[in-house]
Amino acid sequence: MDSVTSKAHEIHFGDLAKAALQQYLAQNQYSKIFILVDENTNEHCLDFFSDIHGSSAETPIIIKAGEVYKTIETCVTVWNALSNMGGDRKSMLLNLGGGVVTDLGGFVASTFKRGIDFINIPTSLLAMVDASVGGKTGVDLGALKNQVGVINQPKMVLIFTELLVTLEPRQLKSGFAEMLKHGLIADRDYWNELISLNESDYHNHIQKSVEIKNNIVEKDPTEQNIRKKLNYGHTLGHAIESYYLEHPIKDTLLHGEAIAIGMILEGYLSHKLTGMSKIELDEIKKVFLSNYPKVNFTQEDIGIIIDLLKHDKKNSHGNINFVLLEQIGSAIVDIKVPVELFKEAFAYYKE
């Protein structure tokens, strides 16, 4: 795979990633090199990566695995570890993990000593095509997603598709939802390619998804306009994810599973408000329900999820702003949605 270049950094794949990392670390005399992992990547990915980076790194900093640990409390643990291990402003943090590690690690690096350099090495499909690219860092506030953070770019992103063998099929599917989103918001032909894939073909399309996201971020790095397109499915999807994350009885939904539901719901809103055809709406619903299990929402569930929308970080001046589709491959931002349409969207999903 060819490298993807942005104004802020480069995204390298495979052997090019290995060479780029070794050259970069040799050319930059960091006082200390730290590696952040979670329990899973410490067990399954660290040995692979240690053979690649070829430099002397400190003992890995290990955090607990899972979205529930993407918190400011975990940041404090990592900040203390960096301080206790002698980290200074000339230190480097290598974030080896999925979206929680790259989001949280990027935020930790951006704030420790008022900012140290970091590199993202995503180990999940979701992180490879989404979380590690674009410079968004941060943590959750309780069950509310990504409420605290900054936009700060890594020095580079290194993608090793070999690491995907460590994932369970459900985790691969979660990442695939973000790839489907890229087709929906930017490229009908890419959507058509993806919906004909089997799971063994995912890795062959990672570069295309990275290119789509990178092209959007390049034009709008601080999300003032078109970068908002990347939030398609995430307004309702994040509310659903938050609700299931904090519910004492219901099973937690993975990010991609919640966003898949959000894309169906926001597809319905697109049909009602921005002109997407019923044919394309039904196509979107069919694709996602063939890939992700259907969730049974009660009326109580729906009411609480709709109430959670007021916490969405994309809101402004009391308005809930949505990204909707004009058609598959074309998205439009900052659409305000009448509240009565939310329950209609859930009804369509449940049909």
Automatic annotation (TrEMBL):
<dbReference type="InterPro" id="IPR030960">
    <property type="entry name" value="DHQS/DOIS_N"/>
</dbReference>
<feature type="domain" description="3-dehydroquinate synthase C-terminal">
    <location>
        <begin position="175"/>
        <end position="315"/>
    </location>
</feature>
<dbReference type="InterPro" id="IPR056179">
    <property type="entry name" value="DHQS_C"/>
</dbReference>
<dbReference type="GO" id="GO:0003856">
    <property type="term" value="F:3-dehydroquinate synthase activity"/>
</dbReference>
<dbReference type="Pfam" id="PF24621">
    <property type="entry name" value="DHQS_C"/>
</dbReference>
<dbReference type="InterPro" id="IPR030963">
    <property type="entry name" value="DHQ_synth_fam"/>
</dbReference>
<comment type="function">
    <text>Catalyzes the conversion of 3-deoxy-D-arabino-heptulosonate 7-phosphate (DAHP) to dehydroquinate (DHQ).</text>
</comment>
<dbReference type="InterPro" id="IPR050071">
    <property type="entry name" value="Dehydroquinate_synthase"/>
</dbReference>
<keyword id="KW-0862">Zinc</keyword>
<protein>
    <recommendedName>
        <fullName>3-dehydroquinate synthase</fullName>
        <ecNumber>4.2.3.4</ecNumber>
    </recommendedName>
</protein>
<dbReference type="InterPro" id="IPR016037">
    <property type="entry name" value="DHQ_synth_AroB"/>
</dbReference>
<keyword id="KW-0456">Lyase</keyword>
<dbReference type="Pfam" id="PF01761">
    <property type="entry name" value="DHQ_synthase"/>
</dbReference>
<keyword id="KW-0170">Cobalt</keyword>
<keyword id="KW-0520">NAD</keyword>
<keyword id="KW-0547">Nucleotide-binding</keyword>
<keyword id="KW-0479">Metal-binding</keyword>
<feature type="domain" description="3-dehydroquinate synthase N-terminal">
    <location>
        <begin position="61"/>
        <end position="173"/>
    </location>
</feature>
